[in-house]
Amino acid sequence: MPRLPNFKYEKAVLKRLPDAIIVGVDEAGCAPLAGPVVAGAVILDQKKLPKALRQGLDDSKKIPPEKREAFYNILVSCGAAVVGVGRAEVHEIESFNILNAAHLAMRRAVASLTHAPTFALIDGNRTPKDFPCALETIVKGDGKSLSIAAASIIAKVTRDRYMVELAREYPGYGWEKNVGYPTPAHRKAIIALGLTPHHRKTFGLVRTQLAGDAPEQVEMFEVRP
Questions:
Q1: Mean pLDDT for the chain overall
Q2: Cβ–Cβ contacts within 10 Å for residue 153, how many?
Q3: Cys-Cys link to 31, which of 48, 82, 126, 221 (CB 3.0-4.6 A)?
Q4: For the chain, what is the domain count?
């Protein structure tokens, strides 16, 4: 049976820094062709965390939408989690590039917390610049650290809900299902309907799709709506 995220990394930090306030940070929405990139930041109380979260949290991409929603609702109401959300808009993605925009969303998520953390565990292998506290990056951390897994749930559900709202304003692109990812239906809609203000015009696949000669390279993206 696959091993689920746990508090191994959090405990290692506390062994070095006993008074550390640890936040897990993750983003959702780097690969889509439309919409913002959203980051979640979560400080967990290890002693009070409900059993359902302790035994069920995982990388949000591995969890069915219904269960993600359930975990999100528990996280924001259980009293064992301090939750923050930040996002970077399409114009910021186009100005700063997607990596820098994702890091901007992470900084905003941490800044939105009601408790200031002193140490961050961040999913990935790229260190954000000008972060407000000490940090450690963990490759595939959303499948290893419970704090990062919680952040991945917050980021993913928040972003998906927003894209469903946008789908009502911009019908025809299937955002209520693909949440902006480059599915075949979304790519065909770009050709048929053109671009919206929420499309990332600097993304190569958006430009080539508009030209009608986009190569079949959707696999280069992590298409997991």
A1: 92
A2: 30
A3: 221
A4: 2
